[in-house]
Amino acid sequence: MSSVPELFGSMVFDDKVMRARLSAEVYDSLRDTIRKGKKLDLSVANAVADAMCAWAVENGATHFTHWFQPLTGITAEKHDGFISPAPDSHVLMKFSGRALIQGEPDASSFPSGGLRATFEARGYTAWDPTSYAFIKEKTLCIPTAFCSYGGEALDKKTPLLRSMEALNSQALRILRLFGNADVQRVVPNVGPEQEYFLIDREMYLKRKDLIYTGRTLFGAKPPKGQELEDHYFGAIKPRVKAFMEDLDEELWKLGVYAKTEHNEVAPCQHELAPIFTVTNVAADHNQLTMEIMKKVARRHGLVCLLHEKPFAGVNGSGKHNNWSMSTDTGLNLLSPGETPYENAQFLLFLVAVIKAVDEYQGLLRLGVASAGNDHRLGANEAPPAVISVFLGDELSAVLEAIETDSPYTGTEKRRLRLGTDVLPRFNRDTTDRNRTSPFAFTGNKFEFRMVGSSDSISCANIMINAAVAEALRQFADRLEGAEDFDAALHELIRENIAAHKRIIFNGNGYDDAWIKEATEVRGLLNLRTTPDALQMVLHPENIGMLVRHGIFSEAEIRSRYEITLENYVRTVRIEALTMLDMARREILPALRRYRGELASSYGAAKQLVPVLPCRSDVKLITRLTSLIDAIDESTEALASFVAAIGGDVSEEAFFIRDKVLDAMAALRKVCDEAETITAAEYWPFPTYGDLLFGV
Predict the structure, then answer these.
(1) What ranges make up the beta strands (E) of 587-647?
(2) Burial profile 652-691: b = 16 or more Cβ within 10 angstroms, e = fewer
(3) 3-state DSSP call for residue 411?
(4) How do residues 26-71 score in pLDDT, each as one tens digit?
């Protein structure tokens, strides 16, 4: 292995490579495109394409692809060779600027939510020069946006880039009010922590539920689970360590800032955390991370499970989305700073985030909505479905002092007038972390803990960026017309603290009393399921905000609503059909074989010792017979509900929520009980104990 500095980014056409291979004029023009959003001239694109092709071929690439992120939740790619006919009947390796800038994959089979007819195949991919191209498996991958023939976004990258631009525009307005003319761009940064499970591949292949759905649909609790918490931060097993080392190498080659790795709480659960980077790059990197995790696991005879809740009764997996804002001059806008105006500026941005989360809590919840995440939210390792903001004691005390115009009783007892008094200096990590909070301030960033482990982080960050951009827009509209900026600033912050303090909660988010207080007293939303959450995007105020900032058109919003609901319906329907298949073709036959063997043995024993029949055998046979009947009845009930799924997609989703999921739970309950009294050699697939402790 090369040294890490030599290895890192070796398969990326990054700034270092561009600077070395492009002329100064072309390089400067490309940097203006990346930093300022200027249009790329075709002659510059041709020069970049030539250099990119030469570099890729030198590094073993034979093909190129426009790598995009359609609404399937995974990435997509269509490979084209660099080869071009030469006059001597041979070939040249060529790549044009037009091919770099735009591609045309068949879009007919990608989800569009009714934006286009299925027989209309034309779609376009457009190069995103802010995200570096890279080589993966001898193919040059060019990160792109994906849109329809009519220009509608059919991907997750396009609205993410739009939301970043909206945030940039409104944040710059605020910075100008504070006299900052140096900053030219504000970008949101993200560091997504990725949780995952590793299980033995041979065991995985014996379970249809894992193969078809990514989670176990049956499984009795093993004698030992995560109760002792001895797996958390424990010594990493050699087989897992070898996987992690291999994974790091693959990610480092692609410029992914993989930094931290450790065992998580549940057996065979682990986490990888990267260094922060610009949000659209972080989204690309996280998609790559998930893909490469699965590929590397196969090399080691393992399977990487990214489902949010692959095992009932043990922790599920999330993706903690650490979000902040920074300027092109290196300033973190959520860091308090050293001077009074920096403090005031920090507080304004902080209150903007609080306002955004309160007013658009429904959008943040739908940004993490999925069938898989519904199983995870509210469990012991995940925040509740009720969204709240954790600030910690010190910041909460500062905001309370400003709201009530009373002395701050922290480091100094003084009234806080923004822009006149020196606000107290805040230090990072002045309070403990709150792992039960969905949206927690952790020093100079917010940790949004609700994102599911298999989700694209784009969805959540689109909503965060959009909501904060809207809060900043309202602030800028008011402050730009103020005669006395300091007085207007103080009053604006004070008013918004009072208006949105209901969203601030520093206590235990798992406490039932909090959920009751949040919903019944504070009026916060408790959107427990995906169908509930998705309704929020259709509210007029939410449509209006997203359209106003150019993040979605109304047609795009309604199409994504349809697509996400369809995905929910299809996901749960596949799970239900898988349960029926396993129950009918594996579990019931196994139980009948075991009961038959017991009955045969009991009959033989009774003939030998007729006066001493074995009562335990009778009891076991009787219980097995009862469970077989119950499983059969539950199977038929579930089958009838699955057959009844119909109507429009919204009706289907709520029918599944109200009927199908309960029927699935009922079938699982009796099957899991049957597992606990069936001899191990008769049970048809690996148990939880086998899976959780098999690596």
Answers:
(1) none
(2) bbebbbebbbebbebbbebbbbbbeebeeeebbbbbbbbb
(3) coil
(4) 999 998 887 766 777 889 999 999 999 999 999 999 999 999 998 8
Residue ranges per domain, the chain? 4-154, 163-218+227-552, 567-692
Say which residues have a Cβ less than 8 Å from residue 642's Cβ, sequence separation at least 6.
573, 576, 577, 580, 660
CA distance 538 to 360: 13
The count of C-alpha atoms lying within 13 angstroms of the C-alpha of 214, restricted to the half-sphere facing its C-beta, is 19
Torsional sign, CA 640, 641, 642, 647 = positive
The span from the CA of 457 to the CA of 279, in Å, is 9
Instruction: Give whole-number Cα distances, 652 to 101, 300, 565, 661, in Å.
Output: 41, 41, 9, 12
The CATH number corresponding to 567-692 among 3.30.200.20, 3.40.50.720, 1.20.120.1560, 2.40.110.10 equals: 1.20.120.1560
163-218+227-552 sits in which CATH class? Answer: alpha beta
Q: Which two tokens stand for residue 176?
A: 């100008």
Q: What is the pTM of this model?
A: 0.93
The answer to whether domain 163-218+227-552 and domain 567-692 are alike in fold is: no
β-strand partners of 65: 79, 141
What is d(CA 65, CA 670) in angstroms, rounded to the nearest whole number?
A: 49
Q: What is the DSSP string of 516-571?
A: HIIIIIS---B--SHHHHHGGGGSHHHHHHHHHTTS--HHHHHHHHHHHHHHHHHH
Q: Which of 155, 150, 138, 382 is closest to 283 using CA atoms? A: 155
> Which residues, 6+ apart, have CB-to-CB distance to 546 below 8 Å?
466, 537, 552, 557
- What DSSP letter does each residue of 428-481 carry, written as one string? TT-S---TT-SEEE-SSSEEETT-BTTS-HHHHHHHHHHHHHHHHHHHHHHHTT
Class of domain 4-154: alpha beta
pLDDT per position as a tens digit, 338-389? 655 568 899 999 999 999 999 999 999 999 999 999 999 875 567 889 999 9
Q: How far apart are CA 303 and CA 652, in angstroms?
A: 32
Angle at 589 between CA 587 and CA 591, to 5 degrees: 70
Reduced to 3 states, what is the DSSP secondary structure of residue 263?
strand
In 3D, which of 443, 477, 445, 448 has the Cα closest to residue 463? 448
Identify any residues that bridge with 448 across adjacent strands, giving them in sequence order: 321, 439
Tokens of 516: 């009751």
The two three-digit tokens of residue 694, written as one number: 């098999």
Q: How far apart are CA 48 and CA 26, in angstroms?
A: 8
